[in-house]
Structures are given as structure tokens and as C-alpha cells.
Amino acid sequence: MIRVYLATKILRDIGSKNGSSSKDVVDELKSIKGVEVILGQLRDLDESDFLLIFGHDCKHIKNCDIVVVDARENIGTGTAQEILIAKYFSKPVITILPKNSYQRRANFEINGKVVNDWIHPFVHSTSDTIIEDYKQLAEWIRKYSERKLKVKDIRIIDKSIEYYESKTKQPKL
């Protein structure tokens, strides 16, 4: 059994422009044989006890096998944090991020340059794979379970700093 934690905006708050919601992703995951879906926000806990809620979600991320991020729309603060918590626990992160969405733009002009397929650097760098459609989940989960692909962990932060320093000739701090 592969346990998949779905990191997304709170389901009740999603009213997508394209008519889809994370319920589509949940249904797709549930249709994959051998997958158990864990939803952090479906809990019968005191929502005013912030450390309790944070601990609940952290425990589920720690105990899952894969984290799936629904980034078809702008992700929230909690989802961004869940990605880093996944890296802390060395969990693979599959991000659903279609072209021309909030964190991924075609021909994006930034600082006077045009980037053909711009992906938010924090999303790109902390995701183990980016897929455009939730229907690609089954294939990636199958490949992961068969080969146990290499997963980025929290060291991606230090590796990125080293890369920056080497590319910009910045002194090491």
C-alpha cells in the first residue's frame, strides 16, 4: 500500500476557474490500485489549537510515502510549508502544475528577460517531478514504486546555495 498525502488548499475553499477541484485529484488517486489517500485538512480537531493542527499534518507527511501537491491554482501558505516538511522527511513531491497557471507561465517577462516556460523557483526546486495533469499521477506513482527514484531532501536548500555561489562567484558565508 502506498500512502499519498494530498497537499492542497482547503477543499471547501476551492472554486476553480476551470471547474475542477482537488476532489478530481482525490478521485484519481483513489482509483489507483494500492494507493491510500491522506487528506490533511479532513480532521475532527479543534482548529483553534494551532500546534495540534500543525502536528497532525506533519505526522501525516512523515508517515506517507508520497506527497502530491495540487498547484493547478495558487497554492496557499500551508501547502508551501507542507512541501518543505516533505523535503525535511525526504518524501517525494509530485506537483500538478499545468502550463499557464499561477506558478507556471509561458513567455514570462521578468527583470527584462523572457523565460519560455517559467516555473516558480521554489515550486520547481522542491518538487521531484512536475506533471501537467492529475491523470498522469498513476504513471508516476507506478514508476516510483517500481524503482524508488532518487528523492530531493532538505539538502536541496544547501545545494541551491552552493549552486548560486558557484554561478555568481559570491563568497561563501
Could you explain the architecture of this structure?
With 173 residues, the protein is of the alpha/beta class. It has a single domain (2-168), classed as 3-Layer(aba) Sandwich (Rossmann fold), CATH 3.40.50.450. The protein is 38% helix and 21% strand. Helix 3 (77-88) links the parallel strand 3 (66-70) and strand 4 (93-96). The protein is globular, with a radius of gyration of 17 Å.
Please tell me the total number of domains: 1
Low-confidence stretches: 12-20
- Biggest sheet strand line-up: 2-1-3-4-7
Strand tally: 7
Architecture in CATH?
3-Layer(aba) Sandwich
Q: Give the helix level as a range of percent.
A: 25-40%
- CATH class placement: Alpha Beta
Number of H/I helices: 6
Instruction: Summarize the helix and strand pattern as letters.
Output: EHEHEHEEEHEHH
End-to-end CA span: 44 Å
Using the CA coordinates, give the radius of gyration: 17 Å
Indicate the topology.
Elements: E1 2-7, H1 22-30, E2 35-39, H2 50-63, E3 66-70, H3 77-88, E4 93-96, E5 104-110, E6 113-119, H4 121-126, E7 129-131, H5 137-147, H6 156-168
Parallel strand pairs: 1-2, 1-3, 3-4, 4-7
Antiparallel strand pairs: 5-6
Key structural traits:
single chain; alpha/beta; Rossmann fold; five-stranded parallel sheet; 21% strand; globular
What does this entry show, briefly?
The chain has a single domain, classed as 3-Layer(aba) Sandwich (Rossmann fold).
